UniProtKB/TrEMBL annotation:
Cofactor requirement: FAD
Superkingdom of source: Bacteria
A Pfam family this chain is assigned to: Acyl-CoA_dh_N
Phylogenetic lineage: Bacteria, Bacillati, Actinomycetota, Actinomycetes, Kitasatosporales
Record's signal peptide: none
Organism this protein belongs to: Streptomyces amritsarensis
Domain Acyl-CoA dehydrogenase/oxidase C-terminal: 227-371
Protein name as it appears in the record: Acyl-CoA dehydrogenase
Matches recorded under SUPFAM superfamilies: Acyl-CoA dehydrogenase C-terminal domain-like, Acyl-CoA dehydrogenase NM domain-like
Amino acid sequence: MGRRVDRFVRARVFPRESVLDRGGPEAAEALGALRAEARAEGLWALPLPAGLGGGGLSFGAYAEFAEAEGASDHGPAALGSAPLLDVTMLARYGRPEVRDAYLERLVAGEIRSCYAMTEPGVPGTDPFRTATRAERHPGGGWLVTGRKWFTSGAAGADLVTVMARTSGAAGDREGLSLLLVPTASAGFRVVRELPVLGAPGQYEIALDGVRVPADHVVGEPGGALAIAGERLLLGRTLRCLRWLGQAQRAFDLMCERAATHGGSGGPLADRQLVQALVFDALLVLRTTRPLVREAVALVAAGRDARTEVGLAKVAAARMLQQVADSAIQIHGAAGLGPDTPLPALFRTGRAARILDGPDELHITSVARRVLRAYGRTGRTGPPVMGAGAIS
Ligand SMILES: Cc1cc2nc3c(=O)[nH]c(=O)nc-3n(C[C@H](O)[C@H](O)[C@H](O)COP(=O)(O)OP(=O)(O)OC[C@H]3O[C@@H](n4cnc5c(N)ncnc54)[C@H](O)[C@@H]3O)c2cc1C
């Protein structure tokens, strides 16, 4: 299966990337064609539950080829695995009415979903300060009011999961809830697009008294942080796999260029400074992959993976940025122009160090967790990494 996915992404997705990157109706048409091809080849929604129309692969089995699928940012959308996080969350925590109404259609690609936690003017690293509020409506359900931004894929989404305060005051650790908001509801609007280093796909959204049915609360009122934490662990691990695939792609381009280009002194591959870039890129790829695999194994086994996912996320984001940057350097101006995917890979690497929590957040939380274990046990040796036992 991995080889077939790899072939599909290289042969079908890579050549359409420049159209897909631009967004708009042409991109939507290209994506539709890719999805039809993926379905026809039996490659659709492989990690999604079989009972809902997906391929039914476990996370561990999917992880074997998530790198190949994610070698293009468009791979997961083309192959139908993009809604994995929302489907997993709603299958576990959605009310039966919500599951019946949306899950099969999400898996089939008939409707799309997105996730809105981050807000303008509020540090995303501090969810307790969430300003969006949901008040109980006297006639039943909730009224949601607030702003969110950098909501990936909000334009064109049918559903958005919104984190909102349902009780308490800004800064309280309790009182945050997740509500599934149909974007067709009165009071929902996309305010503007927020290009990230020139690329489309991120949006600011407004919720002005949007009425949400009571059964659209995900989990229990007040239960947002546990669900969001679970979702983020899976999401970060998936991103790490995809970033590995993208870094491998940048590395391959870098080596091909070094081997085939050069001046009168011979190919770039003969230059020691170029060899050093290649060595450092290979080193960071090879040292990051086992960290990601360790995180995958713990997440797949349902064990505490917070330390390992934190390590993997920081390492994989830095790795993609470094490898894409070195590949651009070896290409010269061609690496910054429109003829290679390197600008997009570099952009993803740069954004990777901020989205799903910036590096600093992971560094401090992993370090704190490790140091707490020393304080508890009085141990003087290094902690046993990989056991996932450090909480
Ligand atoms: C491409 C992209 C896609 C995104 N998609 C989504 C999405 O779909 N849904 C969504 O809800 N959000 C999304 N985000 C938002 C993203 O998750 C947040 O940007 C991120 O969590 C950081 O929050 P913030 O931007 O508010 O930064 P802040 O919390 O304001 O932090 C700013 C900076 O302060 C520093 N800092 C923060 N905390 C610490 C600390 N403890 N120690 C030291 N320094 C610190 C760091 O340098 C950090 O980068 C996306 C962002 C990007 C770039």
